[in-house]
């Protein structure tokens, strides 16, 4: 394990990605698409006081960190998911929704403009099992792509694992690749349900 300050670099890039977003969600009475922002906020509240073990990799350098986070800390960690919300009036008809088996998918229609390319939700027995997305920002000076995945723990009914990947290509510079993978650790005082073999 190598101690370094790549977490700061990663957070700075994620803030840049958020700044390039669509400007946040607009309040609507009924969401046209899966409400990824609201869902993520609820998960962050449910994880208040839980520990996280995360591996942060920047290029070939990596560090492993453990920390106990409050709800605000989880929201900061999952900021890219909040920024991936597509429930705005300007995007109301921009995505095609499909359902197949236990998968709900919103995909940007050809010719439509949107930073988020797709959102996919997987269900298990009518409960959300996994949420993932992919987004891109492209202009003359730089190209940025970010993707994320949140996975629920079926027995414990809270988030269990996550993965966030980002790549930024700036004109005349080598691309920067960042990746965070993590696991939610149970609270020390938590009574966990028994998992039968």
UniProtKB/TrEMBL annotation:
<keyword id="KW-0732">Signal</keyword>
<feature type="signal peptide">
    <location>
        <begin position="1"/>
        <end position="24"/>
    </location>
</feature>
<protein>
    <recommendedName>
        <fullName>Lipoprotein</fullName>
    </recommendedName>
</protein>
């Amino acid at each position: 394990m190598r101690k370094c300050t790549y977490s700061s670099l990663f957070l700075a890039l994620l803030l840049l990605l958020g700044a390039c977003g669509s400007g946040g969600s607009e309040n609507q009475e009924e969401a046209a698409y899966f409400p990824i922002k609201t869902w993520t906020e609820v998960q962050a509240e449910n994880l208040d006081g839980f520990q996280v073990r995360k591996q942060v990799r920047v290029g070939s350098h990596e560090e492993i960190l453990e920390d106990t986070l409050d709800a605000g800390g989880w929201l900061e960690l999952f900021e890219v998911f909040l920024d991936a919300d597509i429930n705005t009036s300007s995007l109301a008809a921009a995505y095609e929704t499909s359902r197949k088996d236990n998968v709900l998918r919103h995909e940007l229609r050809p010719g439509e403009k949107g930073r988020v390319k797709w959102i996919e939700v997987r269900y298990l027995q009518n409960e959300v099992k996994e949420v993932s997305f992919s987004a891109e920002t492209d202009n003359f000076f730089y190209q940025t792509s970010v993707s994320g995945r949140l996975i629920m723990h079926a027995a414990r009914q809270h988030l269990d694992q996550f993965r966030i990947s980002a790549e930024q290509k700036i004109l005349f510079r080598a691309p920067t690749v960042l990746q965070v993978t993590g696991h939610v650790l149970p609270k020390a005082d938590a009574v966990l349900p028994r998992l039968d073999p």
